[in-house]
Amino acid sequence: MDMILKTTDLCKNFKGQMAVNNVSLNIQRNSVYGLLGPNGAGKSTILKMIVGILKPSSGSIEMDGHTWSRADLQDIGALIETPPLYENLTAYENLKVRTLALGLPNTRIDEVLHIVDLTDTGKKKAGHFSLGMKQRLGIALALLASPKLLILDEPTNGLDPIGIQELRELIRSFPAHGITVILSSHILSEVEQIADHIGIIAAGKLGYENKIDKNTDLEEIFMRVVAANGGRGKN
Residue ranges of the ABC transporter domain (predicted)? Predict the structure, then answer.
C-alpha cells in the first residue's frame, strides 16, 4: 500500500504522564483518515507532533517513505484549534498576507477561495464571518502552499448542521485533487460519513485501525477501545 505518512511507536510524555503511548498510524495516500477518540485521548498531541509543534519523546514519523524533517512541512497544511485569522481583514487580504510570507503568486488566492467557496465575500471582514466561513478560510490558508497532506483537528466543532454538511463535502473532495486528509474528531457519526480509514485512540493508545466497512459496528468497537484503555484519558 502507498503510505504518505507512518508513525511507529510514537510517544509523548508530559512531566511523567504518557499523553501518547506507542501509537503506530498508517495513512494511505489520497484518502481521508479519521482519528477518532474521546476528548483528552491524545489526538491533538499526535497531530501537533506530525506538524512539528511538539517533539516526540520517542518513536518515529515517516513522510513519503523517509524520516520526517522540518523540510516536510512545505508539504503539510494544518488547521489545529482556532483558524489563525486577522479579523479586521477580508478573506482575500488574509490569504494575501500568507502568500507574501510564502512567496506564492496572487493567482493562488483566487484558486483556494474557489475551492472553499468563499469567492463572494468581497469586502466583508473575517471578524464578521460565521463560524463555518472562518473554518473554511482557515482551510484555505492551509491549502495555499498546495500541500500533499492536510491535517484538520476537530474541524466541525461548533458548526451548525449546514456548516457541517458543507465542510464534509469539502473534505471529501480533497483526495481526488491529490490531497490526503487526517481528520480528528470525537464524534463517531461524523467520521463515519467522511473517512475511508479510521484509527481509534483512547488514553493515548491506538486500540483499532482499519478501513471503514459498512458491516463493521464502529460504535461497539469505539466503546470497547475506550473501556479497554481505562475510559477517556486525562490529556
Answer: 5-228
210-217 long-range contacts (CB < 8 A, ≥24 apart) are 212/34
Residues 6 or more apart whose CB falls under 8 angstroms from that of 120 comprise none
Summarised one tens digit per residue, pLDDT across range 1-31 is 799 999 999 999 998 889 999 999 999 999 9
The answer to whether residue 118 is domain-embedded is no
> Shortest CA distance to 184 belongs to which of 87, 42, 68, 14?
42
Tens of pLDDT along 44-72? 999 999 999 999 999 999 999 999 999 99
Range of the domain at 216: 3-83+145-230
10 domain-assigned: yes
Backbone phi, psi, residue 84, to 5°: -80, 75
As given in the structure block, the three cell numbers for residue 139 are: 482551510
Q: Domain tally for the chain?
A: 1
Q: Determine, yes or no, domain membership for 210.
A: yes
Q: Tens digits of per-residue pLDDT, 179-209?
A: 999 999 988 888 888 999 999 999 999 999 9
The CATH number of whichever domain residue 34 belongs to comes to: 3.40.50.300
Please indicate, yes or no, if residue 112 is contained in any of the structural domains.
no
- Judge residue 186's burial from the number of C-beta atoms within 10 Å of its C-beta, 0-12 exposed, 13-18 middle, 19 or more buried: middle
Residue 225 CA to its chain's centroid (Å): 22
